[in-house]
Design goal:
The protein has seven helices and ten strands. The protein is an alpha/beta fold and 262 residues long. Helix 3 packs across helix 4, helix 3 packs antiparallel against helix 7 and helix 5 crosses helix 6.
Length: 262
């Protein structure tokens, strides 16, 4: 069994409570020491990873951030030297297991994938709002009128994680959300029909993907008969979620090494 790296207390980010902010499902605020391990983003489109790396660097100056797991991980110093964050919107055990096995001999941690998480739903909400398909603000306990009265959540794969994300998004928008595979015309049409059965007259298509080819997105929208929002890309909420997964991986390693009592 591979031993866990010895993560010292000084290497752990300090979680602090931010002032009260409007809305639900906001992520915590973190203070990362300048000598924190590197953040290595993996598994996303190169352009998205590069932009997300710039966002994280701006959020946490002084922390090394690498766009792509092909970085010279074996040459990095530290114990752990880095945390690899798979940019997976839904769990993919094959990818995550391969990463962990491939890095087992290095002082490198691998975090959980991104989804599902309320921050992911927040990013989806903001992309819909940018396209005029949802209101950017919300008022608790009040019915909200949005440009779209139902959402087809178009995912690369529909599993339990995608269903959880659809519930989180529906709770933000106060409209029904149905998940469907992005590349399945029949399933997209069925999802839109299901929304119409719930009273939707103007469904939107929300791509739950970091990047989608314009032609593919246009076809998916036509299949669903819905207006499309932009893909997630390097949305700041997604970058914040990547940092959260990084912090969780460091904390988990420290707990498992016996450094803290749970």
């Amino acid at each position: 069994m591979t031993e866990l790296p010895d993560v010292t207390p000084d290497a752990l980010p300090t979680r602090r409570r931010a002032g009260r902010r409007g809305g639900r499902h906001r992520g915590g605020s973190f203070t990362l020491p300048p000598d924190s391990p590197a953040v290595v983003l993996a598994g996303g489109p190169p352009e998205v990873m590069a932009e997300m790396a710039r966002i994280i660097t701006a959020m946490h100056p002084g922390i090394p951030v690498h766009a792509g797991a092909d970085a010279e991980l074996s040459l990095m110093d530290g114990d752990p030297a880095a945390v690899v964050v798979p940019l997976l919107l839904t769990p993919d055990p094959a990818v995550e297991t391969a990463l962990r096995q491939g890095l087992a001999e290095l002082p490198i941690l691998v975090s959980e994938g991104l989804g599902p998480h309320p921050l992911l739903a927040e990013a989806l909400h903001m992309r819909l709002a940018e396209s005029g398909l949802a209101r950017a603000d919300r008022i608790r306990m009040m019915s909200m009128v949005t440009a779209a009265d139902g959402v087809v959540l178009a995912c690369r794969a529909v599993d339990e994680s995608a269903e959880v994300t659809s519930v989180l998004l529906a709770s933000r928008l106060a409209v029904p959300v149905v998940a469907a595979p992005l590349g399945d015309p029949a399933a997209l049409a069925a999802a839109a029909e299901s929304l119409r059965g719930m009273g939707s007259h103007r469904p939107a298509l929300s791509p739950c993907a970091l990047d989608v080819d314009e032609t593919e997105l246009a076809k998916a929208a036509a299949d669903a008969g819905a207006e499309p929002a932009r893909p997630l890309g390097a949305h700041p909420a997604v970058a914040q979620l990547a940092v959260l997964r990084y912090v969780e991986a460091l904390e988990a390693a420290y707990y498992q090494s016996g450094g803290l009592e749970e």
